[in-house]
Each structure stands twice: as structure tokens, then as C-alpha cells.
Amino acid sequence: MNSERHNCQLELRGAGGEEKNTTLIHFTSACTAASLCPPLSLLLCFRTTTTTKIKKKKMSQQTVNGVPSRGKVLTLDNMNPNVKRVEYAVRGPIVQRAVQIEKELKEGVKKPFSEVIKANIGDAHAMGQKPITFLRQVLALCSYPELLEDNKFPEDAKKRAKRILQACGGHSIGAYSASQGIECVRQDVARYIEKRDGGISSNPDNIYLSTGASDAIVTMLKLLVCGEGRDRTGVMISIPQYPLYSAALADLGAVQVSYYLDEDKCWSLDVAELRRSLNAARQHCNPRVLCIINPGNPTGQVQSRQCIEDVIRFAKEEHLFLMADEVYQDNVYAEGCKFHSFKKVLFEMGPEYSSTVEMASFHSTSKCYMGECGFRGGYMEIINMDPEVKAQLTKLVSVRLCPPVPGQALLDLVVNPPQPDEPSYTTFMKERTVVLADLAEKARLTEQIFNKVPGITCNPVQGAMYTFPRITLSQKAIDKAKEEGQVPDMFYCMKLLEEEGICLVPGSGFGQREGTFHFRMTILPPTEKLKVVLHKISEFHLRFTQEFS
Amino acid sequence: MSVLQEISPNVKNMKQLEYVVLARRASQIMEELRKGARKPYSEVIDVSWGDPHRAGVKPLSFVRQVLAACLYPELVNSNKLPVDVRQRAQRLLGQCAGGSIGSYTATAGIAEIVHRVSEFITRRDGGAPSHPENIFISAGSQWALQNILKVLVNSKSSPKTGVLTPVPCHCTTTLSIMGLGAVVIPYYLSEEQGWELQVEELDRALESAKGVCNPVALYVINPGNPSGHIQRRKSIQEVIRFVSEKKLFLLADEVYQGCVYGEKSEFISYKRVLAEMGPPLSDTVELASFHSASKGFMGECGMRGGYVELINLDPDVMKYIYKLFSKDSCAPVLGQIALDLMINPPQPGDPSYPLYNVETQNIRTMLVHNVKRAFEVVNSLPGFCCQPVEGGAFAFPRLHLPPKAIQKAKEVGLQPDTFYCIRLLEEAGVLISPGCEYGQKEGTHHIRFCIMTSEVMMEELLRRLTCFHTQFMKDFS
């Protein structure tokens, strides 16, 4: 233990250095002339430098009051090169432009629309979905326990609040929890998983609560990625994918190994394609992880049981760690589609698989019927992980101190909702059913309307919260985009934003087959508004096609 | 064979915390107590974290009322809550997308809150300007610190990136540095001088890094954790000159700025001192300053709200920092709101002010009392020597262990101060953490415990510590 600690620390080498004034040579040489600071008198105190200042920067190093000005310590040249490769399209330039337009509208600038509709992100409450009463009642009681005396709150809400507070340090949701999460919440999560998977056992020790599912995904990747050169860890992700994966891989300096979903077969996953991609990757890296998003984001497909079995067999054969992103598990709409958890299928395949295949499964409080993104609640369950590696994982999560406690409390309510004999049950079920029924209706509507538009083809939205239609763009449009220095679907989406005030994410942000173009849109706006949005996009598409024909 | 035979070497290199052993044993003991086991105590006192609520400090009513009304907006229209609480909640909800705290926010946080954070900083720093575009709200200050470290640490560079880090230093930061594959370059605070930071020592530390790593940043904690020291203006000026001269990025962890107890102590931010030093320093020194909703009198650790203000950064680098934060979606909204309430408390004349004032005054009095009592009692025990606690959440007294105790610890394979802590836990039901967790000069031993507790808990803690320590010293004399 002791030797490990000293690995990364320099030993004390006697007090008082001798060469006090030496600047570090190797460091100075890393600062190139291009990164030198502008003349200081020209700068406003602490203001982030503007474009004019950047131009001034090109001027040579000068002195102020006889003191030489210094170049920046942190520059594009010496910053972590991995960070430079991070791109996160769902909060990318188009969203930043949308925010700017909103500001302009507020300032009274005339536009062909009166509001910006942000259909770029799966944010149910932002689109007007109301919070589920029971969840918020319990959380309010946890926040201000004096309300437990208030007879306006139902008894079952009070009971839950008391139970959660009992499990918190000092009976306050303001105390840190264990880094892995509050124990009683992890127990409830385990019981929920058991129920979901028809009785297959789940161990609370294998549950890690997290700050939204993305935190857990990034943590697992961080743990897994190692090796250098051809031994560098490769991580298989679908194309199209959710850009959190590509961003995390860039950040970690891991190798992204892409496998393509089959758009012609409703974005289904084909093991032959997995194999092709894996074999190709083995030439230059060491693929060790396979990520699956089911139901799919941005593609909305729901995997069949057969397909999941095939993937599990493949993972076992090829010795891959499986990461199953299942945050949309309760968002399944299409007739004949059903969510099957990877864990359940794994265990039904028998001990040959269930005792060997290593896996992590992720879930979140941000989606489903509750859509509580702002709480950043989530969890992962790990299966068949080596105990020593698990100890390393526990250590890694301790750096975050703990996930937000209100998010943990919320998760507890989601996995342990009101029961039929409890006073909140009827209202809760009514609210839940309405949200999910609406989503199913909107999924149908979206596919229907888009598929009527020449030049737009759209797979059914079987699950999740998005449509990812393919758009046909003429050569002229593609050329025009190039002229503007944009990829074609970004050009398309930017134009749509400027003309209609609708914010979508271009398909290029998720990845797509060369020469095809898409966009991602959430189906979350209220039905009437969604209809308007769909029609506006349809009209825009026709206009756009004509303009560039 | 496990797929995971190989894992990230950086993660492997992160040191294993002693705390894990202690915490595991503590929860076993609690379980035993629940099952009716007989012990000399009926419950475990956990003062191992800077976690006021866990240690019996009550949340502020105003803060929790506003959060409750934001959570359940029906309360906005009820007369159960004071009118300013309801107004505040309504205004905050209006600033959330769709009027719900369940929606995502902008990457840096709710724009209006970010703006108010910048106003708070300007107020705090006697008018030194602060700009909202330089502020990122995050899920606790450590999260923001990790993001900034990530930009600074060049994972591909050889030699490795180094970060000058104080000894003692709370362990999350050292773990973060190691987890990114960077090297911790320790500089030692001078215990004899009340844990003062001395520039000569920074020089020495920097020199020691030569040929080992490439130092790019200096991390300072003021008020100190665990040292409880508050830096004077002059010391801050020296540090600023040092980083400027040595071309280091300055990381100022100032999360305990609201926790100042010494009569003559005053918190002054690095940002303020830097601004007041004027150009060229104020225009050039790159600084990241961190603050949090977890500390202060509010102590809302569980909400996970913190922020970083970035000063003098290259705008091109700022773009990448934005991307890095955007990958995390956004900070938990309740944490953002807690932060907002901390920096904008009720004002005289507001209906909530009288109660807020009483509650905060009580906490202040309690903490000043705790600090005084802890200092007196610990220093009265043979073998203990505690520097004055000027600020922060901890006492970090030095413990002169008898050779027999050190010998015994060696026999059972523990660090001497961990051995002490385990015994304290077993025999007196007090969970604290050992000095070896934070780093200490070779051959010295310390313990750390939280002083942000209720008065009752502090008295009980000191009583148990006194009893235990007296017996311990007798046993090993």
C-alpha cells in the first residue's frame, strides 16, 4: 500500500532549494512565440480576450514597466491534446446559435417566428411535460421536513420521505452519501432489477449510483481504457451513436471502433457487421469493449431478444466487455416491440454465459415517464466484474465524493413507485400512463408525417425519444454547404433554425454512412406543437429542395 | 480469464485511501449496534468528512423552504411558506426551461444564476470585475477542478505533467491528479508557523521536480483543508509573484471562504489580491478559483453545487473548456439553486431575514465555540499539539505517538495514525481520519476531524477522545 502511494509523489528532498531563480527550461521551450501574450496595457482587466486582441497577439513580446510580459501558461499548443478532440453535438454550435437567437428575440429583433423550439435534446420538462406529483411531493418533504406536519401531503409520500431521510447522514439530503450511493437506495434498485428481470438476482453491492447515466458511462470507460500504440483499448460503438461516447473516447484517448446499424432494416444491429468492424480494428488497436444503446439513441430501434442473444454470444467469443446503455428501457412504443434487458437475456442463456460475460448496464432518471433531467440521477449495475477491479472502480468513484443526493432520492422513488394499496397510486398511474401514451402517439405521428414528404425517409420510432430521418440533399445544396464551410446536414439544420426557429441536431454529430444525411429531432413537444413543428420542417424541406434543385 | 485483467494504469496508480478500511469497519460497528451488540457507546460519531449536516448542524430553513417550493410548485401558492421564499422560488422556476427544475440547464448553469455568481464575486472582491462568461457551475467544486486539471495535464507528454500540491492536502485532489496520470509535486506547509505557506518551500519543491516531471500548475487551498490555516494578503501576493515568475497556472481552492473563525483572520480571495496587484500581473496570471455550496454555514454537500471562475485564460482554450463541461450536460439544478441561495441570502427587511439571521448567528457562535473547545481540549492532552484553527472545517492536530504504539502499528501492518484511528473507532465509537491520508512530514503523525458539528456532538466527541487518548497513552507508555 505504501509503495503504491509513493508511485506518483516526489519524495521530499531536504528543505530549501539551492537554485531558487531557475525557470524550468523544458517548460519555457514549450511556449511558442504564437502563444505570447498581447501588450498588457491593451487588455481590460480579466476580460476574456476578444478577436481584436487575438490580432494584437501576433505582435511581438513587449515589456510593461520594465517587466517582461509572459506568454500564457495554458495554450492550444500545450493543452491536453485529447481534450481538443472532444465534440458534443447535442450541445454544439447549432445550440449555441439557438440561444443567441432567443436572446435576439427577447431584445425585439424581428424574425419569421416568435419562439425557438429546441428539439435538439431529450428534455421533457423543457418541452412542457409536467413533473409527476408523487415524486415531487416526496422530494419537497425531504428538502423541508417540517412539511411532514402538513396534512396536504399524502401519507405514503410522507412515509417515503421519512425512510429516505432515515438513510441520509444526519437525516439530511444535504449530507454527503457514500460514494457508491446510499445503501438503501442501492437495495431498492437491486430489488427493482430483480422484478424487471423476472426474479434473476441482483446484488446491491454491484449497484453504483451516479450523476446521470453519462457519469457512470464515462467512469466505466475511464476504468477500462489502457495500453499504448497497437495495444490501446478500442471501444466499439454504433454509428449512428450518442455523441457522449465519441466525446468520452476522445477525451480518454481511446480508439473508437465504429460498427454501422442497418438503416434499411430499421436500424437493426447485425452481428456480421460487428465482426467486420472488430476484425478491421484488430489491425490497429486492442478492442475490449462493446457499447450497445437499446432502445437506440438517436435511432429509436428496439432490439429483439434474438439480436441480444447474438450480441452476447459475440461478446463472449470475442472476449469483450459489454456496456449496455438502457436508459430508454421504459420508452417502448411500437406494436410487437418489447424491451429485453441484456442482463435478463444473459442469465437466461445459462451459466456458460451468465457466469462469464462481463457487463455494465446503465439507467437514468432523466428519461422514461418522469423525464427529470435536472436531478442528474442514474445508476449502473456491474456483472461478473473481477473483485479486484471492482475495488479499483470504487476508488475511482470516490473522487466525485458522491452523486447528488436529491437525484439518489428521486431514483429511489422511480424504482419503488406507489403500490396499488397506497393513496398516491391512482394519481401516479394516471400521470404516468398519460405521458407514455402521449409519447407513443407522438412517435406514430412523427413517422407518419415525415414519410409523406418527398426527400425525407423515416424509420418507425419504436422506442426512446427521437426520430432520425434521412434527408436527401441535392448536389447543389452540398456544394453550397461546402462553400459556407459547413457539412451538408449542418448547413440544412442551420438554415432551418434561422428560417423557422426550430433547433435540431445534424446527423453528422452522431455519425452516419458516408454520403447519407440525417437529423435528430426529439418527439417531446406537446402533440399540437409537435404537429406544427413537423409541418414546418416538411415545408422547409420542400422549400430547401426547390431552392437547391 | 477476466476481460478486465488490464485496467487503466492511472486509475491503478491512485492511492488506496486508509479511510476505506475505517469506513468499512464503522459501518460494521453500526450494524452490530443495531443488532444489539454491547459497546461502551450507543452510536458512532462520524466526523471524518467536512459534512456539517452529518455532524448534527441543521440546514438553514430559508434554503430548504425555497428548494421545497421549487420541487413542488404548489407550495408557491400556499401560505405555509414566507412570502419572500415563495417569490424567490417562483423567480427561480421562471429561469428554468419549461418552468421546471427537472429540465437541463445551459452548460455553465442557469444564465441568471451564473450572472448572480459573477455579481457576488465582484461584491466580495471590492469591485474587481467578474464576467459571467468565465464562470462554470458544476456538480461540486471537485468536478470543476477535475475538468480544469484535465485541460492542463497533457496525457501524452514526456516527462509527465506535474502539479505542485500542498502537504497536507485533502485527498480528492491528489487522487484526481493521479487519476489523470499527472505527478503530485508536494510542497510542505510549515506546521510550526501555523501551517503557513512559505515561498522558499515552493522553490524547493519546484526544484525537486526537475528531471522528474513538467510542472504546469500550483494548487493552493485557502482556508486550508485539513490545515485550517488562512493565508494573509502578503503570502498570497508572494504566491502570485511566484507563479508568474515560474510560469505556472494557479488553482485556488477557496471552498471554505465562508468558514473563518480566528478573530484576526480574514479571507481574501486570490482573485482580489491579483486584481489589486495591478498590471502586468493582473492581466497575465492564469487563475482558476473554486467555490462550493457544500461549505459555509449552509453546508449543503449532498446537493453538489460548485463553480469555477477562470481568469486570464486564452480564449481559444476557453472554447475547449466549454466543450468539456458540455459533455457533462449540466450541474444538478438543485445544486445550482443552493449556490444561488448561498450567495444571495435574505436581506434585512425580508420576512425570512429574522429567522435566517438567528440560524446563521447560532451556527457561527457554535463553530467559534467548537474551535475554541477543540483547541483547548486537544492541546491539554499529553502528546497532542494543535495549531490554531483559523478557518475551514477541520482540526488537524499533531499526535506524538509513543514508540510502543508505533511498534504495535507496524506489527499489525498499519500506518501509526491509522492504527490510532482504528482503536479510537473500536473503543470510543468515533470515526475520524488519519494524517497519513493527507500527507505529512516523515515521522510526524496527525488526525483530522470536522469541527462543523453541533455543540452537543463536539462535547461528546471531545469527551470520548479524552477518555480514549488517556487510556491509549497509558497502554503504550
Automatic annotation (TrEMBL), chain A:
Enzyme Commission no: 2.6.1.2
Reported cofactor(s): pyridoxal 5'-phosphate
CDD domains: AAT_like
The keyword Acetylation belongs to this UniProt entry's keyword annotation: yes
Pathway, per record: Amino-acid degradation; L-alanine degradation via transaminase pathway; pyruvate from L-alanine: step 1/1
Highest taxon, organism lineage: Eukaryota
Catalytic activity: L-alanine + 2-oxoglutarate = pyruvate + L-glutamate
GO annotation terms (biological process): L-alanine catabolic process
Transmembrane segments: none
GO terms for cellular component: cytoplasm
Protein location: Cytoplasm
One Gene Ontology term of the molecular function aspect: L-alanine:2-oxoglutarate aminotransferase activity
Main location: cytoplasm
Aminotransferase class I/classII large domain location: 138-537
Keyword entries, A-Z: Acetylation, Aminotransferase, Cytoplasm, Phosphoprotein, Pyridoxal phosphate, Transferase
Top-tier EC class: transferase
Family: Belongs to the class-I pyridoxal-phosphate-dependent aminotransferase family. Alanine aminotransferase subfamily.
Function statement: Catalyzes the reversible transamination between alanine and 2-oxoglutarate to form pyruvate and glutamate. Participates in cellular nitrogen metabolism and also in liver gluconeogenesis starting with precursors transported from skeletal muscles.
Subunit structure: Homodimer.
Protein name in UniProt: Alanine aminotransferase 1
Gene name per UniProt: si:ch211-217a12.1
